[in-house]
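Subject: for your reference before the review

Hello V.,

The reviewers asked for a structural picture of the protein, and I figured it would be easier to keep everything in one thread rather than splitting it across files. Below is the amino acid sequence we used in the manuscript, unchanged from the supplementary table.
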Amino acid sequence: MKHIKRRFFYQTNSNDPIFNGKKIEMIDLRANVEENILSDRKGEIAFLELEDDTLIGGLVNKIDGINYLVPIPDPTLIYFNNAQMGLKRISEQRKILISKLNLSSEDKKPPIHELYNFFGLSSGFVIYLFTAIESFINSMIKDDYNYIDRQKNKTIIYNKMQIQESLDFKTKIKVILKENTGKDFFKNNNLNNQLIWKLKEYRDDIIHTKQENDFLRYKNLIKKGFDFKYLDTLKSVAKFMNYYKEDYIIECNCGQDF
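And here is what came back from the structure prediction:
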C-alpha cells in the first residue's frame, strides 16, 4: 500500500468558493509581501490558491514573532499517515529483534535497543491508527445532531461536543455513525470488523497499561506486539473510512512509497 493522498481540512476547486455561507475574499499576498499584509490578521481564516486553482484553508499564526499563513491539514489523515509510515520499520525491527532473541545467535548481548525500537514503533502505530478512527468519527457528526439516550428513569440528550467528550467508543462507532450517515459498517461481523476491535483492545492495553501478576505482568502486551496484524488492520481501517466517505483513503499518484 503506497502512501495515501494527503489533503487539507478545507479544500475546494470551486471558482466561486464559499465557506460557512460566506464568499471567500482573496488577497494577492505576492503583490503585497513587502507590506506584511498578515500583520493585522492573526487568528483569521485564510485561503491559499495553488497552481492548479485548488483552494486550501489555513490560518494566520505567529511563529517566533512573525505572522505566517499556515495551511491546516486533515488531522485524521495525519494520524493515519503516521501509522502507515511506521509499517516498514515495524517489520524490519521485528526481524532484527527476533534474530537477537535467538538463543543460537553468536551475539549474546541483551537486545536493549532492539526491544525499545520495536515496541516503541508498534505502540506508536496502534495509538496513531486508533486516534485516526476517533478523529474520523468526530468529523462525521453533524453540527446540529443530538444523540438521545433513553434510559429507564431518564432521558439524556448529548450535543456534538458532549458526544465527542463523553460517549464511549462502541456507541460512537455503532450508533452515532449510523444515525449520522444512514450506514452501518458493523452490521455484519467480518474480518475487517474484528481487526478494528482488536486494534481497540490493543490500544486500551497500551494507554491503560495493566499489571497482571509479578514477573509476567506485561505478558499480553509483549505477545500482541509480535502477533498483531499491522498491515491488515491498516487496510481494514481504510475500508471502514471509505465505507462512510468514498475515496477518502486513497493511494497517492506520485509513484513513491513515502
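For the response letter, the relevant points are probably these. The mean pLDDT is 84. The beta strands are 11-12, 18-19, 22-23, 45-49, 55-63, 66-71, 147-150, 155-158.

Happy to draft the paragraph if you're swamped.

O.
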